[in-house]
């Protein structure tokens, strides 16, 4: 290839170089468009995000836990176990209970309001129970999830 390119004159060589760069840019552009369309259709990781959220919609796992899990998965303690399990921090919710000395009026409120009908003659009273939600904290615990620890196997193979 190099000797054939060296035998060409400068004009033909530059035209071939421009054609090569244009071909590269065009195929890269098409690949980006196909990638964007496929991501829009498939939504990769969407199921995993729904699985890892609590009722409020916030992710349970912190980014620090995810990074530390990656580092732990790089060096599996058991290579055979790494073929079907990978380390993953489990976060279990713990509901904080309030103090027993708190008064009922602070933790449990009832709001009463009235609504008139169209005529304005009949008033219906409604009672709305306002109780604050319990405070939930998450405790990190070591655990494993199903799936191959590819990162650990690759790092082991490379060393």
Automatic annotation (TrEMBL):
The chain crosses the membrane at residues 21-42. Keywords: Membrane, Symport, Transmembrane, Transmembrane helix, Transport. It is a multi-pass membrane protein. One of its GO terms (cellular component) is plasma membrane. Pfam families: SDF. One of its GO terms (molecular function) is L-glutamate transmembrane transporter activity. Signal peptide: none annotated. It comes from the Eukaryota. It is found in: Membrane. Belongs to the dicarboxylate/amino acid:cation symporter (DAACS) (TC 2.A.23) family. This is Amino acid transporter.
């Amino acid at each position: 290839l190099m000797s054939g390119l060296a035998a060409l004159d400068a004009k033909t060589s530059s035209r071939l170089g421009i054609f090569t760069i244009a071909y590269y840019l065009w195929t890269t552009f098409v690949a980006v468009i196909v990638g964007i369309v496929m991501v829009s259709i498939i939504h990769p990781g969407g199921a995993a995000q729904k699985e890892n959220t609590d009722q409020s919609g916030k992710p349970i796992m912190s980014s620090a836990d995810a990074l530390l899990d990656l580092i732990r998965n790089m060096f599996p303690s058991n290579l055979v176990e790494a073929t079907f399990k990978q380390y993953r921090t489990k976060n279990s919710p713990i509901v904080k209970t309030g103090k027993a000395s708190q008064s009922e009026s602070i933790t449990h409120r009832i709001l009463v309001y009235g609504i008139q009908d169209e005529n304005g003659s009949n008033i219906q009273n409604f009672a709305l129970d306002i109780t604050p939600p319990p405070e939930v904290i998450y405790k990190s615990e070591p655990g494993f999830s199903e799936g191959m620890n590819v990162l650990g196997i690759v790092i082991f193979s490379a060393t």
